[in-house]
Write the structure tokens for this entry.
Amino acid sequence: MDFDLIIIGAGPGGYETAVEAARAGLKTAIVEQKYLGGTCLNCGCIPTKCFCKNAELINELGNADNYGIVGLNYEKLDINKVVERKNSVVASLTEGIKSLLKHPNITLFYGKASFIDSNNVKITSLEDGGENIVSTKNIIIATGSKTKFLPIEGVDLPCVLTSDEMLNITEIPRRLVIVGGGVIGMEFASIFNSFGSEVTVLEYCKEILPNFEADIAKRLKSVLKSRGINIINNAEVKRISAGVQGDCSVTYLLKNETCGVDADIVLMAVGRVANTESLNLDDIAMAYSRRGIEVDNNFQTNIKGIYAIGDINGQCQLAHAATFQGKRALNAILGRNDKIRFDVMPAAVFTYPEVASVGMTSEQCKEKGVKVKSHKAFFRSNGKALSMNETEGIVKILADENDFIVGGHIMGPHASDLIQQISYCITKNMKIEEVCDMIHAHPTLSEIILSSVQS
């Protein structure tokens, strides 16, 4: 079967690109091995946000007295109801994707894809083993990533789970040890702390969220520790040992001293690796490394007509990054230009409080020799934040010597929403004084952006 475009993988990058390609008139085939929506919808962004909402509600209930609500008797969370609600949300969004892919120009295949050569792909059905050969001049690889494991003893024990399994547990662990203090680790730490678990985070780096603004990461660490989360930095996990009752013990080095912590569940959250297996990349001489497939500015690989978007290229493991990389690749195929700025990539961490970042950090500015001025404002001085009883947090905006905004970093309520204003400012090359002249509605959380640039 001949197509104008073949897309391997139906995550956000894959299915959204397929829809746009179909609307542009391309006869498009999309191949999915596991489930529509990829990691983001099924075991990443969306499911964790469902859990975050439950955690947020628990935190609100814990402060009920502050709102004059007396006698509220909150005792126990039904984790099965939490999982059931999460599954319902995922199912609803999956149906939405199915509807989008019911386009006359789209053919959806369920199966395992592998390259025969640079223009032909074999699709093997996972149900009956049947095979289809599809041909094209343009291929987009969007197979995503998978959980990374430390090469240590004990990672195969039943008590060691990935984020996939954590989203389907039937019992809240009394003691949860999280190996890794990055985005995934800190989100689950915040969630299960609210759910009632005793949470310990073991992070190898000197700070949590090592890729974020250090000032923000330190402040978040302080807040989470005040809520009872035990965060241990500079911890090198060496092994995981089985206990006598299905539990386990995690051994780690801290300042050359051997330490240990017991757990009912250990969450492995040390990152994700590109899903390059099973595609037969070596057979077509595609250039790739452990990080992912090598691509140019249009996300084209070393083989003309083959592109790689999303986690598979290792550049940025975010769902919206995959979507816009797909947009750029499709534009290259169609001969269209765009003004997408991939250096302005907002990122959010859905802890409690939330953290969000865009543009350069102070550390990156220092490395590149960019002299910056820091503009700050605190949520405790924002009227809307006070009314919400959400006063913990800060906005930090970085501007260069000419007052152009080059970075923005937020910890506080709705940080994931507020960061978009700073993203816009950077994308449009705005100066501090221009933001000062923008009228912000009152009372709103967005006023804290205005307060920061006026500082």
The radius of gyration is 23 Å.
